[in-house]
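As a warm-up, study this chain.
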Amino acid sequence: MSTIKSVQERRRGQYDFWAYYNNLCALRNTCPIPAIKANNLRKCILDTDNADRIRLVDWNPLIDALKINKSLRGITFTSKWKKTNKIEGTLAARTKIPSIQSTEVMAKLSRGLKDCLFVTECLKSLELRGIHLMPRDVETLSKGLVNNKTLQHISLEHCQIKDEGLETLCTGLKDSLSILSVNVSGCLLTPKGAAALARVISHQAAVRHTETWKESLRYRWPNLDCMPGLRRITACINPQIGDEGAYYLADALIDDLWLKALDLQRCGITNEGAKKFESVLQTNTNLLIIDLRMNDLIDSSQLEAIMKQIGTNTVRQNCSSLEWMEPIKIGDVNQFSSTHFKSSKNCRINSETAASINDRSHAVVSNMQKERIITSNKTIDHYTRNEPITFREADIEAEDLRATDLQKLQSKLNKYRRQLRKEITNREKVEMKLREVQKENERLNNYIKEMSNTPLLSESVKEVVLDNENLLSNIEDSLEKFHNFLDMLREKGYGNFWSTFTATIE
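Now compare it with the structure written out below.
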């Protein structure tokens, strides 16, 4: 007997991964994987730090347990195996290929993950790292993404899916209503792959513009942050993307109001691509992170201009919660990066700290080297080296004494930031009103010039003016003659006669 026939046991297994997996291993005469057993106490997260150690016979019960699971919140499979050059003749070159890199296991695993995506009620994160995925495996995962409503983060880091695999994945991403971040670092992408990501951004922007219009009816103000769709795209360590791929992404971001972060470390971008992104940041103030560090062909002055514009956008925004990636150095290209995305309304984005992480752009962000963050009445200093800071006892006492003053300064700083945002809004309104007045003034001046240049209209105006002047002079002469007549009557003694005459008329 190789399966669990009891319906009740299977239903319980949907919400108790470890118990169901343990029963499957017992039925198939295999031992549970030690790595999974060690991670059993973690909060519903399946994290195989080194899936290369899992034997071929151990994959079947693991995949069968994943198919029906509804309780796991995170699934991570990591392979640290690297294909070495056989000419070297070293022991590493003759190392056996792990089972997770075989097409048979990956086909079963992808089908199991697809079934899990169909039935899950809690899964938030799915990460496959360093695993070579075939096009059919990516297609299977893409089918699972279409009907899933819980997944928020997907990572295929160093899975070498290439442009074709990314295009297949994008068919599931573009219609997903739950995925907030995607990581395709180290996937051998070219400008064609960047164009596929740009199409996803444009498609989701068009859909969300329609939703925004619906929400704006009856004088309602739409909440852009609550709308579904991508908020972060990470595509680092793809040196073939270059400026051409950067142009595709920049053109898609101009009209987008929802994507907050774009990570492009070590993507072969030069100053031309960086200038394109700088213009996008000036137009799209909702974009809070464009990480172009570790692109050796970008000048420090250009990075400085981009960081200043990011700082301006950060001040204008009500602080969406995003964190910068660690800089990917030359020796860390084959290692896995860590990106974070949170959904809190009252968090800060520390663009100054993130800029200072990059050792190469140390001179670029010299004015942003240090930022103080008040957390639980303690002050944490973030320096450019990102090294842990050890305080002496005297320093800790001094910090405690100044904690109240720092809190007051922090409250004042928040107050001034709110005032600055208000002043920026008022200034934009005044400038808009000034432009309207200038346009109206220009229109009136042009109308006057046209009237003065028209000969018929000018002559008619002159004739009317002359006629009006003659009429006034005639009226004045008639009144003067009438008053002279009345004076003559009074002199002749007929004044009472005139008053009696006027009384009878009244």
